[in-house]
Amino acid sequence: MDQLFVHIDQAIIHWAQAVLPDWMAVIVAMKIPIVAIAIFGPVTMMYLTLIERKLLARIQNRFGPNRVGKFGLLQPLADGVKMLTKEDIVPEKADKIAHLLAPILIVIPALLVFAVLPFGRNMIAVDLNIGVLFFLAMSGTTTLFIFTAAWASHNKFSLLGGMRSVAQMISYEIPFVLSVVPVLVVVGSFSTVAIVEAQPGLHWFVFTPWGAVGFFIFFICAVAEVNRTPFDLPEAESELVAGFHTEYSGMKFALFYMAEFMNVFTVSALVATVFLGGWQGPILPSWVWFLLKTYTLILIMMWFRGTFPRLRADQLMGFAWKFLLELTFVNIIVAAIWYEMRSPLNHLTAAAILIVTIIVLFQFNKTEIPKKRIYKYAYAD
Amino acid sequence: MFGIGVLKGMAVTFKNFVESYYKKERLTTIEYPEKRLAEKERFRNFPFLIFDEKPEDPRCVACDICAKECPPQCITIVRAQDAQGKPLKKPATFDIDYSICMNCGVCEEVCPFDAIFMDHEFELAEYGRFEDLNYTIDRLLKPKEHFMKIRPTDATRIEAELKKKENAKKAAAEKAAAAAKAKAEAAKTQASQVPDTKPETKPNEPAQPADPPAEAK
Which of A191, A205, B59, B151 could form a Cys-Cys staple with B115, CB 3.0–4.6 A? Predict the structure, then answer.
């Protein structure tokens, strides 16, 4: 059961070797993971939209989509048909080429990052030795295409959304990347497979003090990275109409949506890989563990969406620069200390340093509430 | 402490999420085509014409008052005529165009013969824009029992009033008949003098509407 998909993969390759000429068999062997990802990505995205709508509906005491198919299970297909048949409107003054390219290109990094995710034991498309770096670099490019779309639309709301997206990305990319560094320090490799193998059984990094803090930072930055509530300033409905995709309709809009949801999946998968032990776990098959962790994180993201209002721009920036960044720096040092010391003592030291840091940071970040003014002479007898 | 509010908010949404699965008062949605709310008696939507025994004799006497009063002018009435061209007290055509009707209920209020009432019907969507939405008399006519079923309070009151009116009419007619008979007898007893004029008949009959039959608009 654990190696189910690996066996299927091998069976197809064996069949290809028996039936097809050698050069074609090689191509088939190369294409299998690509095809698997190209199917898995969009299908995941389609059903994530359904899950999100159902979950938000339940949070708001509604039913959610339940008309198309049993439990609304065919809703994504209906949405797809609707999106495909809608009129494609391009604003008159838009930069036509960029307007067309942005939604197409935004899907590419979202699909590429699937390649370095270890879905289970031996279930990885490419075991890159710079896997995490590749992931971070690729998911970072999304902002470029968001900005392209915003610029090409020739719409002030789009442009504002795009600029906010860039600002947000610059702020959150730094703690996002730096919060992985402790893991890299401890594991000594960028490869996602090596990171997962360094957390055998239940020895996940999240159970260490620096891992817990790292997980917290990494997850929050991941939410910010994929522009989801409460960090969805680039597409703030109440302020910017729809942000960077205001001027998009039909399938182009659907592609933005697809990229967003695939990013949600991949980013949650990366968080699970780096801090929650990826496919490691007892009893259940490895890929079940992986999907379980990933979907838990996705559901938490949706839960955030159902709960929190949007942050103000200055709160967003302040949180990244004044709290998360310092904490990540301290976290790197703590991880190094933890790694060098012996077992019971290292946990205590690391926890102590981190708790002190967090308290100090809270103290520094306290919002100053001005004292109530007393008008000395106003009420004089 | 910082962060408690965040957790509190998440607890609230989680409670809503979980309780929506088993608590009735959380999930108040009624899934309409399968389940329906009980109809309120005082709900009024589209008018219908009432008939007492046979759909061939509706209560409507084609007086054209409702068509004149109708604010958006959606009612068209043509009075029926007999073979000699004499107008009858019933409509030949009675059309209500639902694409114009605004469900105000003025027709019910102005009708002096209690012949038109507001219905509970609300699923009136049709495929065609013109002919399908034009409700002709055969689609509008509904029996007295239907009215009694959907609006029992109003129906009992109106029926009682009608009955009272009818009894009064009958009594008056009897009285008139008795008077006429007495007069005739009196005339007879007064031997053969000048032959009397005809006895008057039915003094209480409602006046014939003065206007000619409404032309089709």
Answer: B59
